[in-house]
Amino acid sequence: MGRRPQPDIKQRLLDDCVQHALAHGLPDRLGPLVTATGTSARMLIYHFGTRDTLLQDVLRRARQQQLHLFGDLLRARPGEPYTATLARTWTSITGPDGQPYLRMFGQWRDSAAQQPCPDFRRAATTDWLGPLEDGLRSLGRPELATLVLAVIRGLLMDLDATGDTARTTRAFHDFLTAIEPAQPATGHGDGTGSRQNSTDLSARSNNERVPASR
Question: Is residue 116 one of the residues assigned to a domain?
Answer without folding.
Answer: yes
